[in-house]
Amino acid sequence: MRRLILLLVVAMASSEEFFFLGHEFSRTPLGDRIDKASVKMLKEAYLSATDSNVVTSPLGALLLLSLYSAGAQGKSREEIMQFLGSTEYKELFDSYSHLSNRFASMDPSYLTLANKVYVAKGYTLADEFTNTARSYNSEVDAIDFQDPKTAAQIINQWADEKSKGHIKDPVSENLLDKSAAAALFNVIFFQGHWHVPFQAAETEEKDFHVNRSLVVKKPMMHLRKSLFYNEDNEIGAKMIELPYQESGFRMVVILPNEVDGLSSVLEKVAEKGLLDDVFALSPAGREINLYLPKFEIRSKLDFTQILPKLGVTRIFSDGAPGIVKERDVTISEFFQEAIVKVDEEGATAGAFTGAIAVPVSSNSKPPKPMDFIVDHPFLFAILHEDVVLFTGIYTH
């Protein structure tokens, strides 16, 4: 049996400036399904990672799984559909193809979503799979895996271009199997812009509690603004929302109530998802005095180890007959490289173009600001409306 190499490349999420926008988002069944799968993947990625700082774009993996399911049958397709939360394949295809095209049509200056299918010399993609790939807005090209050095250069050049230079050489020639029949790739690149800046002059070294016994110094950015806020005593955390200038995009920071509360919060979030809390965010009614560490995380994740823990096993053993015409294939490699960078750079100008209005009587005083000090391990997510693009954990 020839083996299909499934390679996932996910690029950078970068935050540079801050902005306040309206908050009229719709919640959809697809958003809910992506949410639940995403936080389960984050949990397993965190548990399996060698570094406890983790970032991942579950959406990239979910897109490739849905694409692969077009050529799979039987139990393999059933496992994928169950993990993706779908009961009918047509509904799965329609929702993910629409999502791929919607994101691919956005301004590439801030969002790039690109899918790529390479087919090895001597093989031909199955007609239905080709049509599905086109419906996912995927590029389709031939490649010679018998020359792994050149093949790796071609793949890396594509990844470099789509990630605007932030993902360098994710594929080595040693990773490429000369017997591979095809390869699937995905890149997601997001560069959001804060509109009201974190002033670099206000960034200062402050205590960050890695755990109850270890305290280190971290550069903490500072912002004092009206923000959307929520507390959830059920999961034991509070959260704020930092909207981007790009319409519909936002980062949500989930801060456990306890210094050592990350594991408990992650366990509960993995059960219920994030969207209930995201859609419960509301104006705090007063300014929030926010301290948030600058951070950059780069992760390399092996989904061949993560997915079986989530019930997706047969894609690595059972042959898929509908990828190439010549024979069945299985997945030999499924990995992801992701990076997120959050800092105050690029905030040289900007205006506060929105505000939250609260009733104030003529003889009342504004309420005191609420402190939101992110000084111990936390979770974060970057969303477009109700779709999770990136999730991550920062611990040190």
Automatic annotation (TrEMBL):
The keyword Nucleus does not apply. It holds the Pfam family Serpin. Gene3D superfamilies: Alpha-1-antitrypsin, domain 1, Antithrombin, subunit I, domain 2. SUPFAM superfamilies: Serpins. GO terms for cellular component: extracellular space. SMART domains: SERPIN. Residues 1-15 form the signal peptide. InterPro entries: Serpin_CS, Serpin_dom, Serpin_fam, Serpin_sf, Serpin_sf_1, Serpin_sf_2. It comes from the Eukaryota. GO terms for molecular function: serine-type endopeptidase inhibitor activity. Coiled coil: none annotated. Belongs to the serpin family. This is Serpin domain-containing protein. The lineage of its organism: Eukaryota, Metazoa, Ecdysozoa, Arthropoda, Hexapoda.
